[in-house]
């Protein structure tokens, strides 16, 4: 079939040689390379100091196990206990998934390419005038993370998923074929996403939407991430948004010492939430963060994203776990779980274990933080930002590529200060 032939050809082009063997099959083939999931439907990969699990639904990460500074293994990702739970139609917080074909929000579910206007499916901010929603979030009501990707390759330390997104799906022009490869090694999680617009020009922006709690909810004094420090050394600016988080077009300054300043020094996520400017910072009546910071570093000279320093560092003084995020992407969205309210349970394994009975085994408000490597949000509606080469892709042009490395280490700074 046409699609499978394409997948095979692209697979050969884009993937490590070892995986191309399995790319042609829909049926039985290649039991040698595709290992079965565990009883919860999770596909595991592992290497020195790190284990991670994934599901085909949304190509989502479901578990990430790292040892804390005392040698206790903690699952530092928010999620459900089994693959089935991810397909609950009533609760779909994009847990650990790959939002696509266009992550974050599209204003009025509308964009223009070469003078032609496209309307995509809305799915957020319902109003009487727009009962389905005033905008599109994460690719629409049947975005990529509502679908099963195909497992095309699986080794001990690596897994590759693919998806074929047909022309017209959710209103987007043209077919898109994408591969997502996750690899672990040396306390590091590597992500590579490639996507190709095979038939028409179309917007593409992907990300990884994992929710983190670097204590694995094991901290006996808090269930929140408000004590985690966040540092984004290249992010003196952010994208201005309206009260439903749609970019206005304005690029805002994160003045030194302001609520959104995480560039001048590392700062605890909760440090400024009592300040008046924190109110409404993440939309209507919302106190916290749900913002897109720009990553500006070309002015410092040529850089190699793998070695020129992380775009973001998050550290928990309690577990000692530090996460350094390296990426080739030019923006970084942070969501501080302002909307969580204790209605999600934590997982039944490798989470919790605190001996404080006052802490409920649930995800509280500010109980996690989502860290999204991506491009400037809704740039398809802001041609004045001149992001077209990073957001609009078409046949014959360069593919869309996202690369990131999540490096874990132990940093004992701060240990003991709170007890
Ligand atoms: C799957 O996990 C959810 C909670 O995450 C639980 O309620 C449900 O019973 C589990 N289902 C199976 C089949 O284990
Ligand atoms: C918003 O989208 C609707 C159709 O979905 C369209 O009729 C309207 O013109 C759009 N408004 C703007 C300001 O683009
Ligand atoms: C995804 O795959 C699972 C397991 O085969 C299946 O139960 C589920 O219905 C599929 N979901 C979708 C949206 O296709
Ligand atoms: C948390 O654990 C530490 C170390 O075991 C202990 O000193 C402290 O009293 C505990 N706090 C609570 C609230 O249980
Ligand atoms: C604002 O948020 C608070 C706390 O989240 C809530 O109790 C209140 O009802 C909200 N107010 C409005 C006008 O939505
Ligand atoms: C360790 O964490 C502290 C506080 O978050 C931070 O200031 C320091 O730079 C970190 N150390 C390293 C080596 O990253």
From TrEMBL:
<keyword id="KW-0119">Carbohydrate metabolism</keyword>
<dbReference type="GO" id="GO:0006006">
    <property type="term" value="P:glucose metabolic process"/>
</dbReference>
<keyword id="KW-0413">Isomerase</keyword>
<dbReference type="InterPro" id="IPR011013">
    <property type="entry name" value="Gal_mutarotase_sf_dom"/>
</dbReference>
<keyword id="KW-0732">Signal</keyword>
<dbReference type="GO" id="GO:0030246">
    <property type="term" value="F:carbohydrate binding"/>
</dbReference>
<dbReference type="Pfam" id="PF01263">
    <property type="entry name" value="Aldose_epim"/>
</dbReference>
<comment type="similarity">
    <text>Belongs to the aldose epimerase family.</text>
</comment>
<feature type="signal peptide">
    <location>
        <begin position="1"/>
        <end position="20"/>
    </location>
</feature>
<protein>
    <recommendedName>
        <fullName>Aldose 1-epimerase</fullName>
    </recommendedName>
</protein>
<dbReference type="GO" id="GO:0033499">
    <property type="term" value="P:galactose catabolic process via UDP-galactose, Leloir pathway"/>
</dbReference>
<dbReference type="GO" id="GO:0004034">
    <property type="term" value="F:aldose 1-epimerase activity"/>
</dbReference>
<dbReference type="InterPro" id="IPR014718">
    <property type="entry name" value="GH-type_carb-bd"/>
</dbReference>
<dbReference type="InterPro" id="IPR047215">
    <property type="entry name" value="Galactose_mutarotase-like"/>
</dbReference>
<dbReference type="InterPro" id="IPR008183">
    <property type="entry name" value="Aldose_1/G6P_1-epimerase"/>
</dbReference>
